[in-house]
Amino acid sequence: MSITKTTHETRLIANSMRHDIITMVSKAKSGHPGGSLSCTDILATLFFTGVMNYDENDPSSPERDFLILSKGHAAPALYAAFHQLGWVRDDELGTLRQLGTRLQGHPDRNALPGVEVCSGSLGQGLSIAAGAALGFLADAPEGAHPRHVFCVCGDGELQEGSNWEALMFAPNHGLSNLTMFLDLNNLQIDGDVRKVNSLGDVDAKLAAFGWHVIHTDGHDIERLHAAVEDALGFSVAPTAIVCDTVKGKGVSFMENEAGWHGKAPNEEETALALADLDAERVQIEKEA
Amino acid sequence: MAKRATREAFGETLVELANEGVNVCAVDADLAGSTTTNKLQKAYPDRFVDVGIAEQDMIGVASGLALTGRIPFTASFAVFGVGRCYDQIRNTVCDSNLNVKVCPTHAGITVGEDGATHEMLEDIGMMRALPNMRVLVPADYRAAKAAIRIAATTPGPVYVRMGRHKVPEVYDESFVGGLPYAGVLREGSDATILACGVEVAQSLAAADILAKSGISAEVIDVFSVKPLAEDVILSSAEKTGRVVTVEEHMVSTGMGSAVASLLAEKHPTPMRFVGMRSFGTSAPGDVLLEHFGLDGAGIARQVEEFVRA
């Protein structure tokens, strides 16, 4: 069975995941903290609010829903979620990006159960997700809910043209069992997505392609949960949950700074980052 | 003797496999009539997906279908179905070791009239460079049927290179091939001709011409370029002491360079490489084979120069 926590509990889990992300990337001395922190609440909602079907005791359980992390550089966020589930051991967190690790720089299905497909070359996840959703839709017994496929994409990633092939394909095949999250943090390596090569009105573009579009706060667990419930109940078209997010969310000096896309914090910065997260945790606990 | 193109075996064999209960499906990119996957579409509409003119999506969708337990075959012209989506084949199919079969048609110079942009001459090199990928280059219609069957029953990525050019029959119905497989089609003592694809029949014709000049050429079909049937190739090289590779592909990265690597390491042997060294051009396939020295007469001429040198 998948785990179902309250919104408050899930916020605490997300805080622990952010703690893991900083710890892992800091120890590895390389990695992508900014985009990992921006999609942490999305992953926490999927894994811990009861919307995604999986078996916490078996990452390869046969009837599980799929999660495909198309923005594979956010691997630390995925590993942090797996750590919460016990799929990644405590002693593995320090092995990120090191020789022999299951925690490869980008997710590797050959190394780590729970990773559905190797990702990291941007613009490939959505087509894979669509193909899997197509298969699951055909396999679903009459009247039964097909297995669902969730795909997490970055906003800069949508500059890859291949995504638009998949964005056209999925609605044309009625893939209502496919949900894409767009982690709209507005930053890419070279700066502001809107300046480098703007996506324009992405909600309107997705809707014009035939997607069921929900725009929400990508750091509000309750609203994210409601959006996924909406997607799961929508039986006509695939759903795109466009999430306003903050790159580096939760670490004051990383927030909205493109420079933290692919840079590890040094020892001093790590201490500051963890202090921010500890303060956030105290705040969340107070709000109980 | 009936001439048939290797592509004619493709859709037909997929239908046979589906009839036998093998969980194959096809993902095409707007060329189902040309690749012949429309035969599967007609017999089993629910085993066929057309993504439109979107080769990157084709490989991604096939990868997703493979994750659901199906055995997807992707189909397009080789120049698009490999070149346009190489990153997807590398990073999704091969790195994840997915059960996807990349099976384009219209490879090589014999595409003919469509000209250089449509004549894929680098695909063997691109595919054999990838870990986990196996590479089959069938010589005729029967060999193509065998290659599709091997692809369907071999777990993991397999590449099958097919063409539109009608070639003479090399094999009868009993041919099953293998992985690896290389077959000695004609024994000889002065030189070994290693050929693949449409060049197998051309090389057999070259051996007939050479025989009239008193040169005894051994002709071997290199059915699997990766892995190579090393024993067959090495023993022939040891016997004749001269190896000529023939392919409608760039010599820089093709079957010939795979053979050269093998021989350099295990039994250094003087070699000649018959193949392409430039982009192609427009003309009927047979005219192009002659123009680029890839027909029987052209191959015979190059082998004779080598033997008499």
Write up this protein.
The complex is a heterodimer of chains A (about 290) and B (about 300). Chain A contains 10 helices and 7 strands. Chain A has a single domain (about 5-285), classed as Rossmann fold (3-Layer(aba) Sandwich). In chain A, helix 9 (about 220-235) links the parallel strand 6 (about 210-215) and strand 7 (about 240-245). In chain A, about 40% of the residues lie in helices and about 10% in strands. The longest helix of chain B has 14 residues, at about 200-210. Chain B has helices spanning about 10-20, 30-35, 40-45, 55-65, 80, 85-95, 125-130, 140-155, 200-210, 230-240, 255-265, 285-290, 295-309, and strands spanning about 5, 25-30, 50, 70-75, 100, 135, 160, 165-170, 185, 190-195, 215-220, 225, 245-250, 270-275. Chain B is built from 13 helices and 14 strands. In chain B, helix 9 (about 200-210) crosses helix 13. Chain B folds into 2 domains: about 5-170, Rossmann fold (3-Layer(aba) Sandwich); about 185-309, 3-Layer(aba) Sandwich (Rossmann fold). The interface of A and B includes residues 126, 127 and 138 of A.
Question: Quick one: CATH superfamily of the largest domain in chain B?
Answer: Thiamin diphosphate (ThDP)-binding fold, Pyr/PP domains
Q: Could you list the spans of chain A in which at least 5 consecutive residues all have pLDDT below 50?
A: none
Biggest interface pair, counts: A-B, 33 and 30 residues
- The rounded distance between the terminal residues' Cα atoms of chain B is 36 Å
CATH architecture of chain A: 3-Layer(aba) Sandwich
The average pLDDT value of chain A, as a whole number, equals 97
CATH class of chain A: Alpha Beta
Structural class of chain A, please? alpha/beta
Overall morphology of chain B: globular
